[in-house]
Amino acid sequence: MSGEGERAYIPDDSDFSTFRDQCESQEGWSSRYNKGGVAVWTQMQQESKTVQKIKMRIVCRDVPPETLYDVLHDTSYRKKWDSNMIETHDIGRLTVNADVGYYSWRCPSPLKNRDFVTLRSWLPLGHDYMIINYSVKHPKYPPRKDCVRAVSLQTGYLIKATDKSGCILYYLTQVDPRGSLPKWVVNKASQYVAPKAMKTIYKAGLKYPEWKRKHDPGFKPWLYPEQNTLPSISLAELSLQHSDSLENIDESGLSEAKMSLSDDEA
Question: Which positions make up the signal peptide (predicted)?
Answer without folding.
Answer: none
